[in-house]
Amino acid sequence: MTGPASSVVFAYSEVGARCLRALLEAGVDVRLVVTHEDDPDEQRWFAGVAEIARGAGCRVVMPADPAEPALAADIAALAPDFILSFNYRRMLPAAILGLARRAALNMHGSLLPKYRGRAPVNWAVLNGERETGASLHYMVAKPDAGALVGQQAVPIGPDDTAFEVVGRVAEAAVSVLVQSLPRLIDGTAAATPLDLASGSYFGRRTPADGEFDFGWAAVRIHNLVRAVAPPFPGAFTRFGAAVLRVHRTRRRDGGARHAAAGPCLLVEDGVVLAQCGDGARLELVEALLDDLRLDAAQFLKAFGHDPVPARPQPRAQARA
Question: What CATH architecture applies to the domain 207-319?
Answer without folding.
Answer: Roll (3.10)
